[in-house]
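Page 37, continued from 36.
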């Protein structure tokens, strides 16, 4: 990577807002880059810019991340040029629970993040370009949500291996005979690590939702989620399988982040739409 990799240009994909009364309005989604910038990539770029040793820069950046984590888990608000991070909690307890150690199954703590001043300025100053797309016919993978609820019946747990998970979108029903048809989880930290869920292991297989047991191999961490199917909007199948990847990696286990402003969890990754609304991620 070099400094020329960052163009300060965001491409916006325009899609027909088919659910509104107007015929000339569109909604926009950011066309994200295929590469995820992790801490190693940040250290590499920083070292190039400063003329420093990459390993030393990585060590410093990683230590800074640990400091922020320690501060947040100690109840501090952390304010950096990139993000404002605040600790938060959710859950309900009974009066009898107040004199006991908190039950971590009932009480969840998390950190919420919002843009810091430097990031806000950078986003405001970046250039924008808009591409118009034709009507979407392929799969639209919108988001993922744990399907197991906590004892109080209101709080959605973080996705956990061995527990049910649901994917939402449009035209994501698994269909066809191609061996690639199914759901694939790819580790963000180790892209060579992939876990495949075949069609026969999906218990609820519908155009707008898939529900299945998250494989044990999908361990704590961030995972890119993709769906491959030959299903067509008319109910038949197409010859070539089509794949769509969720824009935002899925946090599993301890990597799950409580959605900001929500006390009881919710969908994570790739948008907030529920059943084919305007927040779905179209196939670019």
């Amino acid at each position: 990577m070099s400094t020329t990799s960052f163009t300060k240009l965001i491409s916006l994909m325009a899609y027909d807002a088919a659910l509104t009364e107007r015929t000339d309005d569109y909604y926009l989604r950011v066309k994200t880059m295929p590469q995820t910038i992790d801490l190693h990539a940040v250290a590499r770029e920083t070292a190039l810019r400063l003329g420093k040793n990459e390993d030393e820069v990585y060590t410093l950046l990683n230590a800074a991340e640990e400091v922020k984590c320690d501060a947040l888990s100690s109840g501090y608000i952390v304010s950096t040029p990139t993000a404002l991070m605040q600790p938060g909690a959710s859950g309900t307890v009974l009066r009898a629970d107040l004199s006991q150690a908190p039950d971590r199954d009932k009480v969840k703590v998390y950190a919420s993040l919002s843009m810091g001043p430097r990031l806000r300025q950078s986003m405001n100053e970046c250039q924008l370009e808009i591409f118009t797309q034709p009507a979407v016919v392929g799969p639209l993978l919108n988001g993922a949500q744990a399907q197991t609820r906590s004892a109080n019946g209101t709080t959605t747990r973080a996705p956990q291996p061995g527990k049910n998970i649901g994917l939402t979108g449009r035209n994501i029903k698994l269909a066809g005979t191609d061996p690639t048809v199914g759901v694939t989880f790819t580790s963000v930290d180790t892209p060579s690590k992939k876990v495949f869920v075949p069609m026969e292991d999906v218990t609820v297989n519908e155009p707008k939702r898939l529900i299945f047991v998250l494989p044990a191999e999908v361990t704590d961490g961030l995972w890119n989620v993709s769906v491959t199917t030959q299903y067509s909007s008319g109910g038949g199948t197409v010859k070539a399988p089509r794949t769509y990847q969720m824009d935002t990696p899925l946090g599993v286990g301890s990597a799950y982040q409580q959605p900001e402003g929500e006390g009881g969890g919710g969908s994570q990754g790739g948008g907030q739409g529920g059943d084919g609304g305007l927040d779905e991620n179209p196939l670019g």
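The domain at 136-255 is CATH 2.70.50.70 (Coagulation Factor XIII; Chain A, domain 1). Flag for discussion at group meeting. The chain has two domains: 3-84+115-130, 136-255.
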